[in-house]
Amino acid sequence: MGVQVPLSQAYRSVGSVATIIYKGQECFVHIAVDVFVVLLYARTMRVLAFLLLCVWLDKGEHLELDQVVFVPEDWLHAGRVSLHEEVELTFALRQQNVDRLQQLLQLVSDPDSQHYGKFLTLEEVASLVRPSQLTEKAVWTWLQHHGIRNCNTVLTRDFLQCTMSAEVAETLLPGTEFHHYRRGDQTVTRSSSQYSVHEDVSEHLDFVGGVLRFPLSGKEISKAWAGPKQSGKAFHLGVTPSVLRTRYNLTAADIGSAANNSQAVAQFLEQYYHPADLAEFMSLFARGFKHLTEVERVVGTQGGGKAGIEASLDIEYIMSTGSNISTWVFTNPGRHETQEPFLQWMLLLSNMSVVPWVHTISYGDDEDSLSSAYMNRINNEFMKAGLRGISMLFASGDSGAGCRHLTKENVFRPSFPASSPYVTTVGGTSFKNPFKVTYEVTDYISGGGFSNVFPMPDYQVGAVNAYLKAGQKLPPESYFNRSGRAYPDLAALSDNYWVVTNLVPIPWVSGTSASTPVVGGILSLINDHRFLKGLPSLGFLNPRLYKLKGTGLFDVTEGCHLGCLDDKVEGQGFCAASSWDPVTGWGTPNYPALLAALMD
């Protein structure tokens, strides 16, 4: 009867995990020292030594143990970080009253509630979710114990950003080992292994940013159309603002005029727009209606060099659809090598009392590559925004249902934040005839499906269950979670756009990166009418959208999107159907009808 795992040994791997068993009792310990040698000679000392070992070593807690730790293939290793090199880490402090936050968001977003549209200010949101004094004290004490004092917080006090040497960071977060990685001209600093935090602060933190997650790659969103050219009424050679206005019934009079209205795009892919491209685009494609040719405000740092197609696409189409409305650009707000650009944008929203009412974001990652702690906390940030009356629109992605290849069988692969219950997700469509303004069918790349992390929210249960029970052929149930949050919520054209980038008109640009700013611009126009009538912004749209049951939208009932390329589904995901479906949501905007439906 003794120690079953030999304790007379040296552990040399910082951050390794050992299991020690004494009389059937397990002690899971995280080795937080370079070398630790246990030498036990006397049997009478074994129990005491075992207990002391557990107490002394079991100080580390993992906050994101389910976070995938890997280096994307487009990032090249560029060497170990110098111990004296500066890193910046973001600490997400545990918030208070998250249940109340969710309840209030539901009340202000439900048109049948007497609290509908009674949004809170950032200061009021801060008073609701601000971490407890105990949490703030515990985290600050922990940081200061390691000599860390160069920290900044946000107005809501639920994030801390601190700079320190890499040596201090690796001591603070046992298990970490920071390295440089390079992609083109961009360099980031990330840990090659998981991190833990001291047990005294584990219950006070949700996650630590700037350690594991890499910035996403920009995707190739331009593709040539290989179909035959058509002729006839409403003939066109690609989607432009005039084509969109024709299809979605926008007239020259449908422009913004409310002084307090604004909209924004957020970009995180090291892409930039050029003001000259925007002016050229408007001169070529925005004739016949009043529009702005300059962005009102850029938040972040505009890089030099060539403009990016995606950045140009976002700006040009939110400003030509939401025409004559003040527009902001949040551009690559995370510039330090250890910052996460998407997370940095979330921090900005928690620190700015005045921000635009509609935000469109073409950004996403696989759900299964992110930790549940990270995604749940980001959901809290979306709820904070919705409670302030901000509409968050995310592209559904360009991989259809996605596909994850497992050992025995495949499953669909949902995307986040598209799968968040607290954002409005936009899918994509194509014209039935690619060169005429006809009715729409699904774009085969349109992202959609069911979350494997978040349960189906109440606002969509009826619509989604109706789809699942409608009798159309569904993929095998082993491929998706039928009780998860289903997306997208609505859609717009996502195929064959014209974009001006680096002063060159580029045709055949496609992706839900195109449809999302179009929907954002239309919602901004509706906000404009609401403001002129003395009504509040639309805020978090989904509860109201699902109660409309398709009113104000063109139903899309033809086509399917991509799935796994295997014997069971043969490359097909879900298919469109009458009413809501997981390819195009409720359909695409019929502006006059949607405006009428949302004007009370």
From TrEMBL:
<feature type="active site" description="Charge relay system">
    <location>
        <position position="314"/>
    </location>
</feature>
<keyword id="KW-1015">Disulfide bond</keyword>
<keyword id="KW-0865">Zymogen</keyword>
<feature type="domain" description="Peptidase S53">
    <location>
        <begin position="238"/>
        <end position="600"/>
    </location>
</feature>
<dbReference type="Pfam" id="PF09286">
    <property type="entry name" value="Pro-kuma_activ"/>
</dbReference>
<keyword id="KW-0720">Serine protease</keyword>
<dbReference type="InterPro" id="IPR036852">
    <property type="entry name" value="Peptidase_S8/S53_dom_sf"/>
</dbReference>
<keyword id="KW-0106">Calcium</keyword>
<keyword id="KW-0479">Metal-binding</keyword>
<dbReference type="GO" id="GO:0007417">
    <property type="term" value="P:central nervous system development"/>
</dbReference>
<protein>
    <recommendedName>
        <fullName>Tripeptidyl-peptidase 1</fullName>
        <ecNumber>3.4.14.9</ecNumber>
    </recommendedName>
</protein>
<dbReference type="GO" id="GO:0008240">
    <property type="term" value="F:tripeptidyl-peptidase activity"/>
</dbReference>
<keyword id="KW-0378">Hydrolase</keyword>
<dbReference type="InterPro" id="IPR015366">
    <property type="entry name" value="S53_propep"/>
</dbReference>
<dbReference type="GO" id="GO:0004252">
    <property type="term" value="F:serine-type endopeptidase activity"/>
</dbReference>
<keyword id="KW-0068">Autocatalytic cleavage</keyword>
<dbReference type="InterPro" id="IPR000209">
    <property type="entry name" value="Peptidase_S8/S53_dom"/>
</dbReference>
<dbReference type="InterPro" id="IPR050819">
    <property type="entry name" value="Tripeptidyl-peptidase_I"/>
</dbReference>
<dbReference type="GO" id="GO:0006508">
    <property type="term" value="P:proteolysis"/>
</dbReference>
<keyword id="KW-0458">Lysosome</keyword>
<keyword id="KW-0732">Signal</keyword>
<feature type="active site" description="Charge relay system">
    <location>
        <position position="513"/>
    </location>
</feature>
<dbReference type="GO" id="GO:0005764">
    <property type="term" value="C:lysosome"/>
</dbReference>
<dbReference type="GO" id="GO:0046872">
    <property type="term" value="F:metal ion binding"/>
</dbReference>
<comment type="function">
    <text>Lysosomal serine protease with tripeptidyl-peptidase I activity. May act as a non-specific lysosomal peptidase which generates tripeptides from the breakdown products produced by lysosomal proteinases. Requires substrates with an unsubstituted N-terminus.</text>
</comment>
<dbReference type="Pfam" id="PF00082">
    <property type="entry name" value="Peptidase_S8"/>
</dbReference>
<keyword id="KW-0325">Glycoprotein</keyword>
<keyword id="KW-0645">Protease</keyword>
<feature type="active site" description="Charge relay system">
    <location>
        <position position="310"/>
    </location>
</feature>
<dbReference type="InterPro" id="IPR030400">
    <property type="entry name" value="Sedolisin_dom"/>
</dbReference>
